[in-house]
Design goal:
This protein has helices at about 25-35, 60-70, 85, 90-105, 125-155, 185-195, 200-210, 215-240; strands at about 5-10, 45-50, 75-80, 105-110, 115, 170, 175-180. The chain has about 240 residues and is an alpha/beta fold. It folds into two domains: about 5-140, Resolvase, N-terminal catalytic domain (Rossmann fold); about 170-240, no CATH class. It has a five-stranded mixed beta sheet with strand order 2-1-3-4-5, sandwiched between helices. A two-stranded antiparallel ribbon has the order 6-7. A hairpin with a 2-residue loop joins strand 6 (about 170) and strand 7. It starts with a strand and ends with a helix.
Length: about 240
Amino acid sequence: MKKIAGYYRLSREDNEKDESNSIKNQRLFVKKYISQDTELCQYVYYEFSDDGYSGTTMNRPKMQEMLKQIKNNEIQIVVVKDISRFSRDYISLGTYMEQIFPFMGIRFIAITDGYDSKNYIGRTVDMDIAFKNLLADFYCKDVSAKVKSALETRRRQGKYSTALVPFGYAKDENDPYKLVVIPEEAQIIKQIFQLFASGNNLTQICKNFNEKGVMTPLEYKNLRKKENRKELRVEKNFGSREW
């Protein structure tokens, strides 16, 4: 049974406002292309998508799953919206397009780039496609350097620049780069320090809290989410009242 794989990828490096690159639209674009091709539509369709993974590495869950099936000769054709969805690393991309896929007899199609490997049997890819691949590699490395530079600048300015917030704190509603203390959670942290200073180890502290019914950090986090949703519903209901 011949199989065709649609592969989709989206990461933070992609423009969030570009809806055409969303996983949903990549899927619609690829499936429409396959359905309109009399040869491709004869294959059994499978799909793999990595949402939130950079194209600079091939170490992506669904990418690795797809490559494993390719090595087991379970997939014969791979279709992507454009080459950068498959990879933004020039070296890795070239290795697969020029060596691995041709050696294994895999047909690779990048729709918007106008690339179909069956048209390049016995010869290298066109210069414009190779140039696009190189530009994608440079672009990704440039974005990565700019992001690191921006984060380092914020740190030097004393701004909190991490998405995750430690237990006992929350991001200031008026300043996303500033943390504010949550009194109730801060009290728990003080108790932990006091118990540790008194000679209690981690297991004893956990047992102590469990016996007292103290909520875990995750439970506090979920509670805050519920409270925020409740407040939002109250605001919406209040705003919809007729006076």
